[in-house]
Amino acid sequence: MERVVVVVNPGMGNIGSVVKKMNRIGIQPVVSFDRKDILSAEKIILPGVGHFATAVRKLKESGGWDVLNEAVLVKKIPILGICLGMQLMAKHSEEGDEDGFGWFDAMVVRFKVTDPYKFKVPHTGWNHCEIKKDSLLFKNVVPDRGFYFVHAYHMKCIDPDDVLSLTDYSYSFVSAVQKGNIYGVQFHPEKSHEQGEKLLKNFVQL
């Protein structure tokens, strides 16, 4: 029986790529920002591309902020944040000096690379993940084959138990997180070929 997966569409993500990748693994997601759809979902995916503070404003103005808090914190529906979607799960971001959901005790900061000629910001392209703890999200995924990144900011977690993986770009930064039913990846699984497909399939099958 097909699981009901809702891809949240608040107008801040590359929804088409996510839907296309989900279709490749045999899932027809519901693309919606409707309260009823989100609260009845079995899984929620929160993509995001763009400015942190702008995304927070859009979510709050639309009512999506409260709906997602209810779905995630009260109903305990598993959620996967992608890129900005993951960053929104932190307490605060330097980008726009704005508060996030606070689901993770974490801050979002801009890359402060040691050599700006060698390490361009945004960090763009393929990079590896170092898995820090066991998680079904990475089942049968080969992190050494790499994932696709596009971001100028990254999450800094206070609690190391929240960290699923680290990636090196001038220094080590958090590239995936998990706490209970809440998952986040800084990279784009929808652009990461076979490894991304495996990760998305793992999330759907949690």
CATH level 1 name: Alpha Beta
Output the structural class: alpha/beta
Q: Name the CATH architecture.
A: 3-Layer(aba) Sandwich
Shape: globular
Strand order of the largest sheet: 2-1-3-4-14-13-12-9
Please mark out the parts with pLDDT under 50 across 5 or more consecutive residues, or reply none: none
Features:
206 residues, 6 helices, 4-stranded mixed β-sheet, globular, Rossmann fold, alpha/beta
Explain this structure to me?
There is one protein chain. This protein is an alpha/beta fold. It has one domain: 3-Layer(aba) Sandwich (Rossmann fold). Helices cover 26% and strands 30% of the residues. It has an eight-stranded mixed β-sheet with strand order 2-1-3-4-14-13-12-9. The chain has a four-stranded mixed β-sheet with strand order 6-5-7-11, with helices on one face. A two-stranded antiparallel ribbon has the order 8-10. Helix 1 links the parallel strand 1 and strand 2. The longest helix has 12 residues. 43% of the residues are buried.
